[in-house]
Amino acid sequence: MLAKRIIPCLDVKDGATVKGINFLSLRNVGDPVELGRKYAREGADELVYLDVSATNEGRGTFTDLVSRIAEGVDIPFTVGGGISSTKDADRLLHAGADKISINSAAVADPSLIDRIASRYGSQFVVVAIDARMVDGVWRVTTHGGKRPTELELFSWAVEAQRRGAGEILFTSMDHDGAKCGYPCDTYARLNELLTIPVIASGGAGSVADITDVLTRGRADAALAASIFHYGEIPIPLLKRGLHEAGVPVRL
After folding, report:
1. How many domains in the chain?
2. Which of 32, 77, 168, 234 is most exposed, with the fewest beta carbons within 10 Å of its own?
3. pLDDT digits (tens, 9 = 90+) for 76-92
4. Burial of 185 per CB tally in 10 Å (0-12, 13-18, 19+)
């Protein structure tokens, strides 16, 4: 069985790492490059950097920051935020990003997935999906969860895979930052429907939460922010707990 991945997420605004609840009340929690180095030393498998204001402010992800991350961090990292064209993807690839994450732009123009995947390969394309439960249905949202759409989570994930996504990063906007656990049944269903890896995001508050989503939820990776940024669960402690619970991880 492939090792499950632990992925710290660094939300970036104006060059600083920030964290809040449901993308609101953001607090500065450190320098993106220094935090990335710290997490790499502690045993993180990958990193995700998301420019949380890029889509709402209509600007591209900062290429110079991506270059600094590539120079200073020695594990794979994904960059997202404000990516809306193959030109954006090309710029980030050449700046050193291992993968790019697209979300709102892919909802607006699903063919963007096809174009980026056909040019750079599916392994370069992570399709991030933010969704909320509305009347018993997981409805996809965009722009950091601020804009509802008519898309349904499972059908959109299947379409994204068909168009060339190499991974799906699903965040429950109902759980993000709340540290109340992941919606494991939802992740398990995504795993059944898809053949590509699923990254779980939004809700980690304990080692047990992450254990659940990697076992009962059958996710391939767990992404978290607050528990790492505030030192609540150090990565070595988390990985030891997962290993003791029988979850295959890289120690």
Report:
1. 1
2. 234
3. 999 998 899 999 999 99
4. exposed
Confidence of residue 25 (pLDDT cuts 50, 70, 90): very low
Query: What is the pTM for the complete model shown?
Result: 0.91
Does residue 250 belong to any structural domain of this protein?
no
- In sequence order, which residues have a C-beta less than 8 Å from that of residue 30 and are 6 or more positions away? 16, 17, 229
- Structure confidence at residue 199 as a pLDDT band (50, 70, 90): very high
**φ, ψ for residue 211, nearest 5 deg:** -60, -45
Q: What does the pLDDT read at residue 61?
A: 52
What three-state secondary structure class fits 48?
strand
Query: Rounded to whole angstroms, how far apart are CA atoms 11 and 137?
Result: 27
CATH code: domain of residue 167? 3.20.20.70
Q: Which two tokens stand for residue 126?
A: 């992570």
Residue 64 designated active-site: no
Round to the nearest angstrom and report the end-to-end CA distance of the chain: 15
What distance in Å separates the CA atoms of residue 89 and residue 163, rounded to the nearest whole number? 16
Q: Is residue 27 part of a domain?
A: yes
Q: Where are the beta strands (DSSP E) in the chain?
A: 5-13, 16-21, 24-30, 47-51, 77-80, 99-102, 125-134, 137-142, 147-152, 167-172, 198-201, 221-224
Check if 11 is active-site: yes
Residues 125-159 pLDDT 10s: 999 999 999 999 999 999 877 899 999 999 999 99
In the chain, helix, strand, coil percent, each to 5? 40, 30, 30
Task: Spot the catalytic one: 45, 88, 130, 209.
Answer: 130
